[in-house]
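Forwarding the complex inputs:
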Amino acid sequence: VVKGFEVRSGEYVVLDDDELKAASAPKRKTVDIEHFVPREQIDPDVYDRPYYLAPQDGGEEAYAVLAAALRRTGRAGVGRVVLRSREQLVAVVEADQMLRLDTMRFADELVDPGTLDHPPLRRKPDARLRKMAAQLIDGLSGKFQPSRYRDTYRDRVLDLVKRKAKGEEIDTERAQAPAPSDDLMAALEASLKGSKR
Amino acid sequence: MARARSLWTGSLSFGLVNVPVSLVSAVRDQNLHFHQIHKKTHERLHVSYVCTKEKTPVDYSEIAHGFETGDEYVMLTDDELAAAQLEKTRTYLVAVRAKGDLLALTSMLFQQEVRPTDELDLPTRKRPGKAKVDRAVALVEALGADFDHDAYKDRYRRRLRKLVKDKEAGETIKAPPAPKAPGPPPDIMEALKASLDEVRAGAGSG
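Prediction (whole assembly, two chains):
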């Protein structure tokens, strides 16, 4: 099996694995860092997949030094690496004294929000509504604790398997979206009362 | 450019407030796609599922999801799987943020999905010397820049496109030699110093 790229309908240019490798053109097996940028300047939408970087024999000290420097400066190293024969844009960041490598998307892989179809937004929402929404957000605010959120889908599928194995009938009714709040002010007020209790 | 289509419509809810919204992917596929071709005939291949018992291709409509429990399978249909959660496919942990005038929803990993670092086979940690860290901080700052996302182009995609063009024109393409990883610096202090000198010299002349 080889790979074929369709240049015209029904016409393929055939490339084998060696030829495809020529597109990766790695000179060295390195993560080449080009710049160190403030971490907060990278929008979360840019990140794709996270990986740990583990120190290799003889590299422990250099590893620890770089991790400490990234921690102190709050910066991420942005560079490129060839992974699975594809050159990737990556960020190297420090987390808990370890180095993590996050693959990133290129700018042209992100959709320009200007191309979205949606009803026009009212530039300035009502000041009272905004204030109440802000109060509600304050009332529901808390520190981010990842352990509080469980992947319940996995649990539910396992439960389903168990029930099915016992020969139970499975109810396949689908969920429906709730109706929008007709009276936004009333909904905000009622929510605020609820969140303060 | 084609307008992005929404992949889900529903409601954003907090407290007793429901905001009707639609979900549009913020990422678009820019990859070059290849078809699988039979080397001998140069014809396209297609994927077919073959039953291990009947040895014959099976139609898509006859495929069920089997969960292995010991030496048996529990069979689930698409409808039964969909009933396992509120929405089709699966439940995501998400963060909603303001991005300009729009709301951006980013899916996140559940903590169970993140590999704990103690599962990694790591050498014992060494506390790095302060002088070395200071030097590394100076180097990080010397190579400091604002994050300019547009400045990084996908060179792989560009090379791949060129490769296809060259091949179409009948050029021979050679694979590059296998890459090697450089070893650790024998003296990290020396390496940091030399790098700093190089960056500073570059900044001065440029």
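Chain A has a mean pLDDT of 85.
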